[in-house]
Amino acid sequence: MESSEVRSTLEELGWDPEWAAVATASGGIGRPARVTVVYQDRLAVLDDRGVRWAALRGRLRRRQSDDPLAIPASGDWVVTAKNPGGGMDTVEALLPRRTCLIRQAAGRRTVPQVVAANVDTVFVVTTPNRDFNVRRVERYLAAIADGGGAAAVLLNKIDLCDPEPWLAQLRPLGDTTPIYGLSATTGLGMEQLQPHLGLGRTVAFVGSSGVGKSSLINHLLGSERQVVGAIRDEDDKGRHTTTHRELLPLGGGAEGMLIDTPGMRELQLWSEGSSVRETFDDVEAIAIDCRFRDCRHRREPGCAVRVAVAKGRLKKVRLAAFHKLIDDAATNQVQRVGSARIATRRRSRLARAERDDPSGA
Questions:
Q1: DSSP string for 181-218
Q2: What is the rounded CA–CA span in Å between residue 361 and residue 342?
Q3: Element spanning 170, H or E
């Protein structure tokens, strides 16, 4: 698939000297390109020549069975080469990610899934209706912190009500996380996003179905590129309109890149707990005064956090949310240990396969 409709310079896509050095160190010989969409074993990649199809080299496909994080995602940088026999380009290398948004994949196996890669700012979108859920937003913020990216929370559709009571519920989420009220329909407050956009920068939009991610993206693109769905009257819940993750250029790339994602009602964290503590910086700030450094803020004597709750300086629901995510992270860690044992056995089989086929074909 070749396309002249979408064409951006490597600089507009986010390429810089640091990426060039990483590509050289990877040993992959070819041209850099950025993954826009992943369709099972095929990738749509974008470079200064346009959009084209590419397929992973055999050794990269085999590595995925051992390491799910080796599966390419929208936003990844890869090195591609022309296929001498014609057809799709070949992906020679997947470059290490600077940031990534990871969740625990749906299903019975405990494995990670990369939602988006190399994102500078992740916009967590919510709306002032019955689907509004601060606890869900907290989960998103913890996942974003775990992947090394920055976050901002967008309260969309503020033209439909008085937004202040809803914004007040979001403000305790942290002093370092911007909270923006805006409306994709009227354009109110959209200028607040500008500091996060620009040449070489990438943003992503996450949130439940129906919060208006597609409308926000259409506003930024200046066209009705993404399909917009209606909200069900009976429960204020939206229908899925985005069915896959996709990297899109803003202003042809001159204003940066953005990644749209399908709605996610539940987000299972892939975290060891450090990102949870970073997300709950208000709890951690109070915890400095706890008697014990390893205080869990449950029944330990001399717990400054529980005292703060009793005195009304910290909301009880905020501490309960902290405990819930910490417990989830601990459970996830136990499951990951079991999965790691299985992965070790797979790694041995992969090593044998690569010895038998050193060409990587």
A1: E--TTT-TTGGGGGGG-STT-EEEEE--TTSSHHHHHH
A2: 25
A3: helix 164-170
Number of neighbours of residue 194 by Cβ within 10 angstroms: 10
One-letter amino acid for residue 49 of the chain = R
Q: First CA to last CA across the chain, in angstroms?
A: 22
| Domain 100-260, classified CATH 3.40.50.150, yes or no | no
Whole-number Å distance between alpha carbons of 50 and 45: 8
Contact present, 291 and 300 (Cβ < 8 Å): yes
CATH code for the part of the protein at 10-96: 2.40.50.140
Distance, C-alpha 225 to centroid of its chain: 21
Q: How many CB atoms sit inside 10 A of residue 88's CB?
A: 16
pLDDT digit of tens for each residue in the chain (361 aa)? 444 456 679 999 999 999 999 999 988 789 999 999 998 778 999 998 899 999 998 888 888 777 888 899 999 999 999 887 778 899 999 999 999 998 877 666 677 889 999 999 999 999 998 889 998 999 899 889 888 999 999 999 999 999 999 999 999 887 789 999 999 999 999 999 999 999 999 999 999 888 999 899 999 998 765 544 444 444 444 444 445 789 999 988 889 999 998 877 667 777 666 778 888 888 989 999 999 999 999 999 999 999 999 999 999 999 998 898 888 877 776 666 555 565 566 666 666 666 666 555 5
Report the distance separating Cα 46 and Cα 31, nearest Å.
Answer: 11
Residue whose tokens read 């989830």: 328
CATH superfamily of 274-352: Probable gtpase engc; domain 3 (1.10.40.50)
